[in-house]
Amino acid sequence: MPTKELVQWLYLVFFIYGLAFFAMGVAMALESGRRLALADARVLRPLAAFGLLHGTHEWMESYLLQAQAVGTPLGVLVTPFKLILLSSSFICLFLFAVNLLRLTSSRSGLPQWHIVIFGSYAVLVLTSASLTYSIIPIPWANLLDGLARYLLAVPASMLAALALRARGLQARAEDRPALEKSFYLAALGFGIYSVTQAFVHPLEMFPANLLNEENFLAASGFPIQVIRASTALLITYGLLRATQAVEEERNLQLFAVQQARLQALQQRDELRRDLLRHTVQVQEEERARVARELHDETAQILSAASLHLAALRASLKRKPDAIAIVEQLQDLTRQISHSLYRLVRDLRPAHLDDLGLVPALDFLVEDARVTKGMDVSLTVEGMPRRIDVSIETILFRVTQEALTNIFRHAQTQQGQVHLCFSGDQVRLTVTDLGQGFDIEGPFHAPRGWGLEGMRERIESAGGIFLLTSAVGKGTTVEALIPLQGVNNDN
Q1: What is the span of the domain harbouring residue 250?
Q2: Could you read off the pLDDT of 120-141 as tens digits, one per residue?
Q3: Mean pLDDT of the chain, nearest integer
Q4: Among 105, 118, 131, 157, which one is least packed by beta carbons within 10 Å?
Q5: CA dist 101 to 30, 33, 94, 169, 363, Å?
Q6: Predicted confidence (pLDDT) per residue in 269-307, tens digit
Q7: What CATH number has the domain bearing residue 57?
Q8: Confidence grade of residue 489 (pLDDT, cut at 50, 70, 90)
Q9: Residue 444 falls in which region: left (phi positive, over 0), alpha (psi -120 to 50) or beta
Q10: What is the DSSP secondary-structure string of 474-487?
């Protein structure tokens, strides 16, 4: 292949070579900042530095190749800077490998056999270089480049391959097959890459006099940089695939956490609804008990007192002053009896228990007309029927509270109650055309307690509470409750 064509081809190879490692460096730098990362930050940061430095080194090689081809003079510091980039990158790779081995094997240092093998290898390389340099002068730039590859690139790449393989075995033990395959691919890439680094520039020292870039090109017909670029792509692909596998695991963990949180919220809401339902039930039972006691005991006592007062009045025919006092006592007794009747009726209206929701609401609306002078109407849509007692009680109390709010706060006497029965739910709507209010405004106690009580009652039955209001546009209270355990008896 002509030299010009070889230069053009090598330029493309170096560009791809550098791009692969640089992209890997950027990806590892980003991954090191994640909370649930591929590995610990102290492991990924040296790998990121290796990718960035070595990618820059290969791009520099591409530039120098073009500059030499066109005869551009190079600065004095170019070669030292290139050697610094090369050495620094492989030092970072060595740190990555050592840290990953420590993290994977839980050892305080490298395994003993690693130290023995790589130490013996370094001694042989340095001995060969010393003996050769003492006899034959070697250009320092070529010598340092060769030693950097022999003493740093080869062992660092091989250690990286061993560390990634160990990480792959650990992923297998953790039953993470996608991560296992990704680490194995990266380990294979670094293993091949370690072998390619043994082919250095031609030197008189052993083994560079036999294993060098020129001899490889002559034997294979393509430069060693092609294999290096291919392994760089393989390494980058394996590590990026590993980060993708970890990202998928992160997403699954996040989804699991979100599902657990959602389930916990649902359980909390269900518990809250059960608690509210129980509270409402206990409250109504207590109301009924108090109403029975007032009706059965206190009302009878008042009736007996009224009878005794009547007897006393008959026996005092000749004492007008005493008769007047007795008559006043009788009036007070009748007033107390009437108030007690209203209290018993409000605590637990007999209409609701005996006749059902619609008659109870009709009685409530009629009472508002008579006692409060309100202009209120009741409309019923659908087929009226008896439903669950707790739901009937909730709708009755919501209507009672809504009518009380109209009377006290709406500055209007007009209102409308609408009850709709459908196949799977019942809807109650209480509307007035009063002054309304800003529902987004602040509510200071005790303001808003009645509305919050409505909401809690409705939600305790699994229903939805809707409040619509605006200043000058009236207020609408709506309750939608699903019908569960419907009683079809009339």
Answers
A1: 3-263
A2: 777 787 787 777 777 777 677 7
A3: 81
A4: 131
A5: 22, 21, 11, 12, 83
A6: 777 667 666 666 666 666 666 666 565 666 666 676 777
A7: 1.20.1070
A8: very low
A9: beta
A10: -EEEEEEEE--S--
Question: What is the domain-level CATH number for residue 369?
Answer: 3.30.565.10
In the chain, % of residues over pLDDT 70: 77
Residue 307 lies in a domain: no
What's the Rg (C-alpha) of the chain? 46
The runs of H, that is alpha helices, within 174-223 are 177-196, 213-220
In sequence order, the 6+-apart residues with CB closer than 8 A to the CB of 479 are 394, 395, 398, 427, 428, 429, 454, 458, 463, 464, 465, 466
- β-strand 375-381 against 425-432: which pairing, if any? unpaired
Q: In this predicted model, what pLDDT tens digit does every residue of 169-183 receive, in sequence order?
A: 989 988 989 999 999
Does residue 54 lie within any of the structural domains? yes
Name the residue type at position 191: G
Please say which residue of 213, 246, 263 terminates a domain. Answer: 263
Tell me the pLDDT band of 187, cut-offs 50, 70 and 90: very high
Nearest to 238 by CA among 168, 303, 288: 168
